[in-house]
C-alpha cells in the first residue's frame, strides 16, 4: 500500500507534470495546436487533482508509519485530512470526459487506500492486544509504585511485581505483527518502555540500593550528596510515571534537565582526600547516568532500529 503512494503521480497521469514546458528536441519550435493529451493535462480538473496528489504524497509517509490507536490525536488529524482530500476529489468536475473520470477514480482509490490502511493498523487485533498488555502494566505500576509515592508513602517494589512485569514482557514478544511496520513499531515501543521500567524498578529493590548515605558528620560534602540522592529518588519515580504514561506534566526534556543539573552539582563538590565520599558521589552519578540512558531511549523512540538493538541486548543478558 505505502509503496504505491510514491508512484501516485506517475500512475495517475502517465507522465510527471512539467508545467507545460515540455518541448520536442531539435530546431526552433513552430506554432502548433495542442494535442488532446496536453489539453487534458492543462484542464482545471486535472490541475486540481495534481494539487490533491501533492497533499497525498506529503501525508502518505505519516500514515504508513503511524503506530497509535483510533483515539490518538494524530490519528484523528490524519483521518480528517484524508477525508477532506477524498471530498475534494469527489467534487472535481470531469465534464463527463473519460480520461478525467479515470484520473479522478484513481486519485480517490489512493486516498481511500490510505484511510483503510490507517484504520486497519489502529484497529488490528494485534495492536489491540498490545494495548491491553500495556494497560495491564500501567495499572500494575500505578497501583504499586506511582500512586503510593504520590500519596507520600513508599513504593511496593518486590519480586512478585517484577515477575508480573516480566510475564507481560514475554506476552508482548509473542504478539504477531504480520510484517506490518506500524505494528512492529508499536510492539518495540511497548517492549522498550516496559523493559526500561523494569530496569528502573530493579535498581530500587533492597539488594541493589546503595549502602549509603554516609553520616553528614564525616564530610561536609556528604550532606549535599544526600540531598542529591533524595532528588534522584524522586526523579526515578517521575521517570517510571513518564514511561508508563502516568505523568501529564513531566516530559523527557524537563526530567533530563533536572538530572543534568544534579550531575553538575555533584561535579562541583570537593571530595578530595576522602575515598569513601568519592565513591559515594560516583555511585550517585552512576544512578543518574542510568536514568538519563532511559530518557535518551524514550526521546528517540521513533528510531525503531535503535529500540530493537537496545531490546535485544537486554534479552540476551
UniProtKB/TrEMBL annotation:
InterPro entries: BAG_dom_sf, BAG_domain. SUPFAM superfamilies: BAG domain (SSF63491). This is BCL2 associated athanogene 5. Residues 17-36 are annotated as: Disordered. Residues 66-122, 221-299 form the BAG domain. It comes from the Eukaryota. Residues 18-36 have a biased composition (Basic and acidic residues). GO terms for molecular function: protein-folding chaperone binding. The gene is BAG5.
Amino acid at each position: 500500500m505505502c509503496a504505491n503512494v510514491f508512484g501516485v503521480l506517475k500512475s495517475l497521469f502517465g507522465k510527471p507534470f512539467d508545467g507545460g514546458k515540455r518541448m520536442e528536441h531539435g530546431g526552433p519550435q513552430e506554432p502548433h495546436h495542442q494535442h488532446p493529451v496536453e489539453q487534458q493535462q492543462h484542464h482545471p480538473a486535472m490541475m486540481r487533482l495534481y494539487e490533491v496528489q501533492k497533499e497525498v504524497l506529503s501525508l502518505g509517509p505519516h500514515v504508513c508509519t503511524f503506530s497509535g490507536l483510533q483515539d490518538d490525536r494524530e490519528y484523528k488529524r490524519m483521518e480528517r485530512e484524508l477525508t477532506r482530500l477524498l471530498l475534494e476529489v469527489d467534487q472535481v468536475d470531469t465534464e463527463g470526459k473519460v480520461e478525467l473520470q479515470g484520473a479522478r477514480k484513481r486519485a480517490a482509490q489512493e486516498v481511500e487506500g490510505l484511510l483503510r490502511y490507517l484504520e486497519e493498523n489502529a484497529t488490528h487485533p494485534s495492536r489491540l492486544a498490545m494495548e491491553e498488555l500495556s494497560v495491564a502494566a500501567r495499572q500494575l505500576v500505578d497501583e504499586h509504585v506511582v500512586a503510593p509515592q504520590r500519596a507520600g508513602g513508599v513504593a511496593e517494589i518486590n519480586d512478585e511485581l517484577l515477575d508480573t512485569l516480566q510475564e507481560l514482557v514475554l506476552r508482548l514478544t509473542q504478539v504477531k505483527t504480520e510484517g506490518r511496520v506500524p505494528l512492529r513499531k508499536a510492539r518495540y515501543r511497548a517492549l522498550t518502555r516496559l523493559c526500561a521500567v523494569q530496569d528502573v524498578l530493579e535498581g530500587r529493590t533492597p539488594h541493589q540500593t546503595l549502602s549509603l548515605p554516609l553520616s553528614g558528620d564525616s564530610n561536609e560534602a556528604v550532606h549535599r550528596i544526600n540531598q542529591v540522592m533524595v532528588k534522584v529518588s524522586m526523579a526515578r519515580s517521575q521517570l517510571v510515571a513518564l514511561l508508563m504514561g502516568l505523568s501529564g506534566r513531566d516530559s523527557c526534556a524537563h526530567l533530563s534537565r533536572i538530572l543534568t543539573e544534579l550531575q553538575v552539582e555533584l561535579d562541583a563538590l570537593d571530595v578530595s582526600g576522602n575515598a569513601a565520599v568519592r565513591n559515594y558521589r560516583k555511585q550517585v552519578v552512576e544512578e543518574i547516568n542510568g536514568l538519563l540512558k532511559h530518557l535518551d531511549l524514550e526521546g528517540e523512540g521513533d528510531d525503531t532500529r535503535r529500540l530493537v538493538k537496545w531490546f535485544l541486548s537486554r534479552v540476551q543478558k
